Amino acid sequence: MDGFYAARASTSAGASLDGFLTAVHIFAAFDNYVSDFKRNKGYDPYFGDDKFDREVLAKGGRLIMVSGFKGGVGKSTECAMFIEIAMAFGHRFIVIESDRRNKDVGPTFKNMAELRVIALDLALQEGMENLLKIMAAGPYLIVVNTPAGMTQPFDEHGEVLKEALKTFDYELTVFFLMNSQKQSVDELSDFRRMMPHARVHPVLNLKEGARNEIADFKEWDNSDIRPEIEAQGRTLVMPLGPMALMNRLEQDKVPFGTLAQDPRFGLFDRHQLQEWRKSMRAQFERVFKFGRISG
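^ that's the sequence the OP posted. Answer follows.
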């Protein structure tokens, strides 16, 4: 009530109502930010974005791996959306489907003229050897959809891959899908120990949180490794989307952009999917300068 009477006194003293409303509007964005900050108990994954040096996607050889410690955490969704966005900017690249159990990404893009798709089991020596041959023939942009439990290939072949990255002048970037459990933090810590020079961007999948909020990821927020990871990368956020429609990627093996235009599905769901795609693009653009490739 004090604020209300103060406002009335101010307007009666000669200040215009329009001026008062303008002042209120100025603080609206700040108040919303503070409210969101408190709701998420102080953790802000966007803090420091203005100082982060984004990588140029088209620069030299680049190996991008999308993974997570368990199945169903959104790995294929993240990988498929990254491929769509990179294609929209005109990038041409190689897609490696390394998930033997859930082969969603490879079949979805296998008929795209802009891409070359191959299945390699990177947990096996033969699969890793073939990856190194592809890198040697480059430099290429290579996107890998890895199987759940990403540490095995690096535990067994990490030293060879590190040497190949150096020899063939490739940069390794990893998008690591996180749920709210401590196991995902431990798995990421193990990977960091094996591949300390990789650029790592954890991805908080809000679908995996109890309330679908950033605040659900307390294990990540309070982990010892988070400051180290965020000193070299960004923590991305996968927003909620229309799951019934998004799950059609697995069933129909078509990109999300195609699903968003499919008249078989409701207009409301398609609009939600389009908005989700825009949000995902904004997340990827926090870490990459995609650049538009002509020709």
